[in-house]
Design brief:
Helix 4 links the parallel strand 4 and strand 5. The strands form 2 sheets. A 6-stranded parallel sheet has the order 3-2-1-4-5-6, sandwiched between helices. Strands 7-8-9 form a 3-stranded mixed sheet, covered by helices on one side. The chain has 2 domains: 170 residues, Rossmann fold (3-Layer(aba) Sandwich); 103 residues, 6-phosphogluconate dehydrogenase C-terminal like domain (6-phosphogluconate dehydrogenase C-terminal fold), CATH 1.10.3660. It is an alpha/beta fold. The chain is built from 12 helices and 9 strands. Helices cover 52% and strands 12% of the residues.
Amino acid sequence: MQRYGTVAIIGVGLIGGSIGLALRARGLARWVIGIGRNEARLANAERLGAIDAATTDIARGVAEAEVTVVCTPVTRIADDVVQASQSGLAKMLVTDAGSTKLKIVEAVESNPRACAAFVGAHPIAGSELKGAAHAQADLFEGRVCVLTPTERTPADRLSRARSFWMDLGCRIVEMDPEAHDKALALTSHLPHAVAAALAASVPGELLPLAAGAYRDGTRVAGSDAALWAGIFCENRLPVLNALEAFHSRLDAFRNSLDAADEDGIRAWWDAAHARRGLFDELEPAPQTGRVDGRQ
Protein backbone atom coordinates (compact mmCIF):
# COMPACT_ATOMS: atom_id res chain seq x y z
CA MET A 1 0.00 0.00 0.00
CA GLN A 2 2.89 2.37 0.90
CA ARG A 3 0.61 5.27 1.75
CA TYR A 4 3.27 7.38 3.35
CA GLY A 5 6.47 7.03 1.35
CA THR A 6 9.14 7.87 3.92
CA VAL A 7 8.22 8.12 7.61
CA ALA A 8 10.69 9.49 10.15
CA ILE A 9 10.48 8.49 13.82
CA ILE A 10 12.30 10.66 16.33
CA GLY A 11 12.89 8.50 19.40
CA VAL A 12 12.84 4.78 18.58
CA GLY A 13 11.98 3.28 21.95
CA LEU A 14 8.93 1.23 22.86
CA ILE A 15 6.40 3.55 21.18
CA GLY A 16 8.56 4.68 18.29
CA GLY A 17 9.73 1.13 17.67
CA SER A 18 6.15 -0.14 17.70
CA ILE A 19 5.16 2.53 15.18
CA GLY A 20 8.00 1.40 12.93
CA LEU A 21 7.05 -2.27 13.25
CA ALA A 22 3.40 -1.47 12.53
CA LEU A 23 4.28 0.60 9.48
CA ARG A 24 6.45 -2.16 8.10
CA ALA A 25 4.08 -5.01 8.98
CA ARG A 26 1.16 -3.22 7.32
CA GLY A 27 3.16 -2.11 4.28
CA LEU A 28 2.30 1.53 4.96
CA ALA A 29 5.68 3.10 4.27
CA ARG A 30 8.35 2.64 1.66
CA TRP A 31 11.10 3.67 4.08
CA VAL A 32 11.17 4.14 7.87
CA ILE A 33 13.96 6.34 9.24
CA GLY A 34 14.85 6.20 12.93
CA ILE A 35 16.31 9.31 14.53
CA GLY A 36 17.88 9.40 17.97
CA ARG A 37 20.87 10.35 20.10
CA ASN A 38 22.29 6.91 20.79
CA GLU A 39 23.81 5.12 17.80
CA ALA A 40 23.89 1.74 19.53
CA ARG A 41 20.17 1.89 20.34
CA LEU A 42 19.37 2.96 16.80
CA ALA A 43 21.43 0.08 15.45
CA ASN A 44 19.50 -2.29 17.69
CA ALA A 45 16.18 -0.91 16.44
CA GLU A 46 17.35 -1.45 12.87
CA ARG A 47 18.45 -4.98 13.68
CA LEU A 48 15.05 -5.71 15.21
CA GLY A 49 13.31 -4.50 12.06
CA ALA A 50 11.64 -1.45 13.60
CA ILE A 51 13.36 0.90 11.13
CA ASP A 52 15.07 0.65 7.77
CA ALA A 53 17.84 3.16 8.44
CA ALA A 54 19.03 5.42 11.25
CA THR A 55 20.66 8.77 11.87
CA THR A 56 21.46 11.04 14.80
CA ASP A 57 20.82 14.13 12.63
CA ILE A 58 17.19 15.30 12.73
CA ALA A 59 17.55 17.50 9.65
CA ARG A 60 18.95 14.63 7.63
CA GLY A 61 16.42 12.14 8.94
CA VAL A 62 13.32 14.18 8.11
CA ALA A 63 14.55 15.61 4.81
CA GLU A 64 12.38 13.34 2.63
CA ALA A 65 9.73 12.37 5.15
CA GLU A 66 6.05 12.76 4.39
CA VAL A 67 5.27 12.05 8.05
CA THR A 68 7.45 12.59 11.12
CA VAL A 69 6.41 11.15 14.48
CA VAL A 70 8.10 12.54 17.59
CA CYS A 71 8.31 9.95 20.37
CA THR A 72 10.82 11.57 22.69
CA PRO A 73 10.16 12.44 26.38
CA VAL A 74 7.49 15.11 26.84
CA THR A 75 10.05 17.69 27.97
CA ARG A 76 11.78 17.43 24.57
CA ILE A 77 8.88 16.97 22.17
CA ALA A 78 8.17 20.63 21.36
CA ASP A 79 11.83 21.37 20.55
CA ASP A 80 12.04 18.24 18.38
CA VAL A 81 8.85 19.17 16.53
CA VAL A 82 10.16 22.67 15.83
CA GLN A 83 13.52 21.37 14.66
CA ALA A 84 11.95 18.77 12.39
CA SER A 85 9.54 21.29 10.87
CA GLN A 86 12.41 23.57 9.87
CA SER A 87 14.11 20.84 7.84
CA GLY A 88 11.29 18.78 6.36
CA LEU A 89 9.24 19.00 3.21
CA ALA A 90 6.62 21.74 3.01
CA LYS A 91 3.90 19.07 2.88
CA MET A 92 5.22 17.06 5.86
CA LEU A 93 2.88 16.11 8.69
CA VAL A 94 4.46 16.19 12.15
CA THR A 95 2.68 14.42 14.98
CA ASP A 96 3.78 13.12 18.36
CA ALA A 97 3.03 10.51 21.01
CA GLY A 98 3.33 12.55 24.19
CA SER A 99 1.31 11.82 27.33
CA THR A 100 0.87 15.56 27.99
CA LYS A 101 -0.36 18.03 25.41
CA LEU A 102 -1.09 21.59 26.54
CA LYS A 103 2.49 22.82 27.08
CA ILE A 104 3.67 21.00 23.96
CA VAL A 105 0.95 22.47 21.75
CA GLU A 106 1.45 25.99 23.11
CA ALA A 107 5.20 25.83 22.50
CA VAL A 108 4.81 24.42 18.98
CA GLU A 109 2.16 26.98 18.03
CA SER A 110 4.52 29.81 18.94
CA ASN A 111 6.54 28.81 15.85
CA PRO A 112 4.57 29.45 12.63
CA ARG A 113 6.25 26.78 10.53
CA ALA A 114 5.94 24.13 13.21
CA CYS A 115 2.32 25.10 13.83
CA ALA A 116 1.55 24.65 10.12
CA ALA A 117 2.80 21.05 10.17
CA PHE A 118 1.79 19.76 13.60
CA VAL A 119 -1.10 17.75 15.03
CA GLY A 120 -0.77 16.78 18.67
CA ALA A 121 -1.47 13.11 19.38
CA HIS A 122 -1.36 10.62 22.23
CA PRO A 123 -1.75 6.92 21.44
CA ILE A 124 -2.92 5.41 24.72
CA ALA A 125 -0.82 2.29 24.62
CA GLY A 126 2.44 1.37 26.24
CA SER A 127 4.18 -0.63 28.93
CA GLU A 128 6.35 -0.27 31.99
CA LEU A 129 9.08 -1.73 29.78
CA LYS A 130 11.17 0.51 27.57
CA GLY A 131 13.26 0.28 24.44
CA ALA A 132 12.76 -1.04 20.92
CA ALA A 133 13.43 -4.57 22.17
CA HIS A 134 9.92 -4.54 23.66
CA ALA A 135 8.19 -2.93 20.67
CA GLN A 136 5.24 -4.75 19.12
CA ALA A 137 3.66 -4.33 15.70
CA ASP A 138 0.15 -4.71 17.12
CA LEU A 139 0.62 -2.38 20.11
CA PHE A 140 -1.92 0.14 18.79
CA GLU A 141 -4.54 -2.33 17.58
CA GLY A 142 -7.91 -1.24 18.96
CA ARG A 143 -6.33 1.40 21.21
CA VAL A 144 -7.50 5.00 21.47
CA CYS A 145 -5.32 7.72 20.02
CA VAL A 146 -6.29 11.17 21.23
CA LEU A 147 -5.74 13.99 18.74
CA THR A 148 -5.62 17.50 20.20
CA PRO A 149 -6.24 19.99 17.39
CA THR A 150 -6.79 23.70 18.09
CA GLU A 151 -8.28 26.46 15.95
CA ARG A 152 -4.80 26.91 14.48
CA THR A 153 -4.40 23.30 13.34
CA PRO A 154 -4.50 23.07 9.51
CA ALA A 155 -7.47 21.00 8.34
CA ASP A 156 -5.40 19.01 5.86
CA ARG A 157 -2.85 18.02 8.52
CA LEU A 158 -5.64 16.99 10.90
CA SER A 159 -7.21 14.79 8.23
CA ARG A 160 -3.86 13.17 7.50
CA ALA A 161 -3.16 12.63 11.21
CA ARG A 162 -6.51 10.87 11.61
CA SER A 163 -5.69 8.57 8.71
CA PHE A 164 -2.15 7.89 9.91
CA TRP A 165 -3.10 6.79 13.42
CA MET A 166 -6.12 4.84 12.18
CA ASP A 167 -3.88 3.01 9.73
CA LEU A 168 -1.78 1.87 12.70
CA GLY A 169 -4.93 0.34 14.23
CA CYS A 170 -6.02 3.16 16.55
CA ARG A 171 -9.49 4.44 17.36
CA ILE A 172 -9.53 8.25 17.19
CA VAL A 173 -10.82 10.57 19.90
CA GLU A 174 -10.43 14.34 19.57
CA MET A 175 -10.10 16.69 22.55
CA ASP A 176 -8.61 20.09 23.17
CA PRO A 177 -5.15 19.93 24.79
CA GLU A 178 -6.26 21.16 28.22
CA ALA A 179 -9.13 18.66 28.41
CA HIS A 180 -6.73 15.89 27.40
CA ASP A 181 -4.32 16.76 30.19
CA LYS A 182 -7.07 16.87 32.81
CA ALA A 183 -8.42 13.51 31.67
CA LEU A 184 -5.03 11.78 31.49
CA ALA A 185 -4.07 13.09 34.91
CA LEU A 186 -6.89 10.91 36.25
CA THR A 187 -6.74 7.92 33.92
CA SER A 188 -2.98 7.48 33.55
CA HIS A 189 -0.79 9.82 35.57
CA LEU A 190 -2.59 9.26 38.88
CA PRO A 191 -2.49 5.44 38.56
CA HIS A 192 1.24 5.60 37.92
CA ALA A 193 1.77 7.78 41.00
CA VAL A 194 -0.41 5.51 43.14
CA ALA A 195 1.46 2.43 41.92
CA ALA A 196 4.76 4.03 42.90
CA ALA A 197 3.43 5.00 46.33
CA LEU A 198 2.09 1.50 46.92
CA ALA A 199 5.34 -0.13 45.80
CA ALA A 200 7.35 1.98 48.25
CA SER A 201 4.89 1.48 51.14
CA VAL A 202 5.67 -2.20 51.67
CA PRO A 203 8.93 -2.86 53.55
CA GLY A 204 11.44 -4.90 51.61
CA GLU A 205 11.57 -7.62 54.26
CA LEU A 206 7.83 -8.24 53.77
CA LEU A 207 7.97 -8.68 49.99
CA PRO A 208 8.16 -12.51 50.29
CA LEU A 209 4.61 -12.24 51.65
CA ALA A 210 3.38 -10.15 48.71
CA ALA A 211 1.60 -11.78 45.77
CA GLY A 212 -0.85 -10.90 43.02
CA ALA A 213 -2.40 -7.78 44.55
CA TYR A 214 1.01 -6.19 45.08
CA ARG A 215 2.29 -7.35 41.69
CA ASP A 216 -0.71 -6.07 39.72
CA GLY A 217 -1.05 -2.86 41.69
CA THR A 218 2.60 -1.87 41.34
CA ARG A 219 3.54 -3.11 37.87
CA VAL A 220 3.84 0.32 36.30
CA ALA A 221 6.11 1.44 39.14
CA GLY A 222 8.77 -0.35 37.10
CA SER A 223 8.61 2.47 34.54
CA ASP A 224 11.46 4.92 33.98
CA ALA A 225 11.72 7.50 36.80
CA ALA A 226 13.12 10.34 34.66
CA LEU A 227 10.39 9.87 32.08
CA TRP A 228 7.61 10.05 34.67
CA ALA A 229 9.14 12.93 36.58
CA GLY A 230 8.94 14.89 33.34
CA ILE A 231 5.32 13.89 32.74
CA PHE A 232 4.26 14.80 36.28
CA CYS A 233 5.96 18.20 36.11
CA GLU A 234 4.60 18.99 32.64
CA ASN A 235 1.07 18.22 33.87
CA ARG A 236 1.53 19.47 37.42
CA LEU A 237 -1.80 21.17 38.19
CA PRO A 238 -4.07 18.47 36.69
CA VAL A 239 -2.08 15.81 38.56
CA LEU A 240 -2.43 17.75 41.82
CA ASN A 241 -6.20 17.95 41.24
CA ALA A 242 -6.29 14.21 40.52
CA LEU A 243 -4.47 13.55 43.78
CA GLU A 244 -7.14 15.56 45.63
CA ALA A 245 -9.86 13.38 44.12
CA PHE A 246 -7.95 10.25 45.10
CA HIS A 247 -7.42 11.50 48.63
CA SER A 248 -11.16 12.07 49.00
CA ARG A 249 -11.81 8.42 48.16
CA LEU A 250 -9.19 7.27 50.66
CA ASP A 251 -10.67 9.59 53.28
CA ALA A 252 -14.10 8.03 52.77
CA PHE A 253 -12.60 4.60 53.42
CA ARG A 254 -10.61 5.87 56.42
CA ASN A 255 -13.72 7.42 57.97
CA SER A 256 -15.79 4.25 57.54
CA LEU A 257 -12.98 2.11 58.90
CA ASP A 258 -12.43 4.41 61.86
CA ALA A 259 -16.14 4.12 62.69
CA ALA A 260 -16.12 0.33 62.15
CA ASP A 261 -18.87 1.00 59.60
CA GLU A 262 -19.00 -2.27 57.69
CA ASP A 263 -21.94 -1.09 55.54
CA GLY A 264 -20.03 2.05 54.61
CA ILE A 265 -16.96 0.04 53.65
CA ARG A 266 -19.09 -2.30 51.58
CA ALA A 267 -20.73 0.63 49.75
CA TRP A 268 -17.29 2.18 49.17
CA TRP A 269 -16.00 -1.07 47.67
CA ASP A 270 -19.15 -1.69 45.62
CA ALA A 271 -18.79 1.70 43.95
CA ALA A 272 -15.22 0.82 42.96
CA HIS A 273 -16.28 -2.64 41.79
CA ALA A 274 -18.96 -1.14 39.54
CA ARG A 275 -16.54 1.40 38.04
CA ARG A 276 -14.00 -1.33 37.32
CA GLY A 277 -16.78 -3.32 35.65
CA LEU A 278 -17.45 -0.44 33.27
CA PHE A 279 -13.76 -0.36 32.36
CA ASP A 280 -13.72 -4.09 31.69
CA GLU A 281 -16.62 -3.67 29.28
CA LEU A 282 -14.73 -0.99 27.34
CA GLU A 283 -11.34 -2.66 27.33
CA PRO A 284 -10.09 -4.59 24.26
CA ALA A 285 -8.96 -8.19 24.72
CA PRO A 286 -6.30 -8.35 27.48
CA GLN A 287 -2.73 -7.73 26.28
CA THR A 288 -0.11 -8.82 28.78
CA GLY A 289 2.21 -6.06 29.91
CA ARG A 290 0.31 -3.23 28.27
CA VAL A 291 -1.11 -0.24 30.08
CA ASP A 292 -2.54 3.11 29.14
CA GLY A 293 -0.42 6.18 29.27
CA ARG A 294 2.42 7.19 26.97
CA GLN A 295 5.75 6.25 28.46
